[in-house]
Structures are given as C-alpha cells and as structure tokens.
Amino acid sequence: xxxxxxxxxxxxxxxxxxxxxxxxxxxxxxxxxxxxxxxxxxxxxxxxxxxxxxxxxxxxxxxxxxxxxxxxxxxxxxxxxxxxxxxxxxxxxxxxxxxxxxxxxxxxxxxxxxxxxx
Length: 118
Hints:
It is a single chain. By secondary structure, the chain is mainly α. The protein has one domain (2-116). Helices cover 64% and strands 3% of the residues. The chain has a two-stranded antiparallel ribbon with strand order 1-2. Helix 1 (2-25) packs across helix 4. The model has no long low-confidence stretch (mean pLDDT 80).
C-alpha cells in the first residue's frame, strides 16, 4: 500500500517536471538572446575550465554553463513540448570542424542563427 503512494509521488514529480520544461521551452529566443550574448562574453574571458578559489569553496564551470545555454537557445518555441523532451543542442562546427569547445559552438550558433533556423 505504501509503494502506491511513492509511485504516485514519482509520477507527479515527472508530470510537474515535463510541464515546467515545456513552459521554459515556450519562452521566445528574443527574450534570452541578449543575456546569452553577455554570458558568452564572460565564458570567452574565463575559458571552459573550472575556476577554483573563489573564496567560499565554490568553483565555476563554464563548460557546463555554455552547454546549457546552447540547449536553451536551441529549443524550438513553436513546438515546446517536443523540443523540451528532445533537448537537442545545435552544434555548429568551427572553421576546423571542431566540436569540442562548447563556447565556440555557442558563438557559432548565435552568429549563424539565421542560417540554422530557416
């Protein structure tokens, strides 16, 4: 009997998560574009590696942040549910066809968005 309570709770959490992801995916790119450009500038100054010794036992990880920015910017606001469930990163290769640096990929995505989202 107790397991049914846990299964219901688990399913409710999944449902709430799907709803929230869909709501976030419906946010238009124009609302986040400027903030992503500002974040990209910071990422390019700091690099991808973790930045230790911030004074309060924390580390910044720009690699993960730039991947998450790419995911947010790659969401299709016209199809938010499908887009949020797929969570696709659009990786635009650099001039050397390198895909390893997510900061370069994010810059290429932002600079080439007209060509990609047609």
